[in-house]
Amino acid sequence: MARGKKIYEGKAKTLYEGPEPGTLIQYFKDDATAFNAEKKAIVDGKGVLNNRLSEFFMEGLNSIGVPNHFIKRLNMREQLIRQCEIVPLEVIVRNYAAGSMSKRLGIEEGTQLPRPIIEFSYKDDDLGDPLVPEEYIIAFGWASQQEMDDIVALALRVNDYLSGVMYGVGIKLIDFKIEIGRVFEGDFMRLIVADEISPDSCRLWDIESGQKLDKDVFRRDLGNLTDAYTEVARRLGVLPTNGPAAANSVIN
Ligand SMILES: Nc1ncnc2c1ncn2[C@@H]1O[C@H](COP(=O)(O)OP(=O)(O)OP(=O)(O)O)[C@@H](O)[C@H]1O
Ligand SMILES: [Mg+2]
């Protein structure tokens, strides 16, 4: 498929103009970054796995009526998506304490929360994506009150779906982050799930052993990141035969 000009090169993905107006091609790179890109590495095969995993989760969400940007996968590293106007927030849903929440509140990682907790950070790399209260979001006009209500409802549906799918393959969904975009259909505006859903943007712990199967493996030097993501993909039946090495040899 014809790939248009490059629109944006991010830390983990590159966006190109798509074949039709209102579409983009999202290319998944092998670059891994953490701590606002202070830590960087190339992780062979990560992009291939995240492309497949994001496809799997977005298609699953679509099948239960949660609107999202995924249109179709094009090849090992690229997918066609609907272009949207990204709401400048990271929408974080937590089921168990971990990461920054544990640090901030002194709660041991893995402690179950009384209910899913949603928090928002303002997407600004220079500021380090600071956590912001909903009042800031409304006051500064990053999203309206109505949109915030819709975003919370969407995030909770994604949480229920992802928690269930993960539980089914012996994985606990500790927390995750999504991005939301606006699409315009005539006079109407709708919110959809955008960006990606992958082990880069979730915390996933094996239920039995507690082993981490997400980007914390990279952040905390716990082992081989590709192996962890391959395990998630294998359990979900996303890569039934070929590992990322095989995938990599086909396209790079
Ligand atoms: N459907 C979409 N339409 C438009 N932009 C999108 C869509 N989905 C994701 N994006 C944006 O594409 C970029 C993806 O690249 P990547 O995740 O590598 O960026 P990043 O380095 O994390 O930067 P950012 O701080 O902007 O997220 C992000 O800026 C994301 O907000
Ligand atoms: Mg990103």
TrEMBL record:
Keywords: ATP-binding, Ligase, Nucleotide-binding, Purine biosynthesis
BP GO terms, sorted: 'de novo' IMP biosynthetic process; cobalamin biosynthetic process
InterPro entries reported for this sequence: SAICAR_synt/ADE2_N, SAICAR_synt_PurC, SAICAR_synth, SAICAR_synthetase, SAICAR_synthetase_CS
Functional pathway: Purine metabolism; IMP biosynthesis via de novo pathway; 5-amino-1-(5-phospho-D-ribosyl)imidazole-4-carboxamide from 5-amino-1-(5-phospho-D-ribosyl)imidazole-4-carboxylate: step 1/2
The SAICAR synthetase/ADE2 N-terminal domain, residue ranges: 6-235
E.C. code: 6.3.2.6
GO molecular function per UniProt: ATP binding; phosphoribosylaminoimidazolesuccinocarboxamide synthase activity
Highest rank taxon of the organism: Bacteria
Catalytic activity, reaction form: 5-amino-1-(5-phospho-D-ribosyl)imidazole-4-carboxylate + L-aspartate + ATP = (2S)-2-[5-amino-1-(5-phospho-beta-D-ribosyl)imidazole-4-carboxamido]succinate + ADP + phosphate + 2 H(+)
CDD domains (alphabetical): SAICAR_synt_PurC
Gene Ontology CC terms: cytosol
Entry-linked NCBIfam families: purC
Family: Belongs to the SAICAR synthetase family.
Protein name per Swiss-Prot or TrEMBL: Phosphoribosylaminoimidazole-succinocarboxamide synthase
Higher taxonomy: Bacteria, Pseudomonadati, Pseudomonadota, Alphaproteobacteria, Rhodobacterales
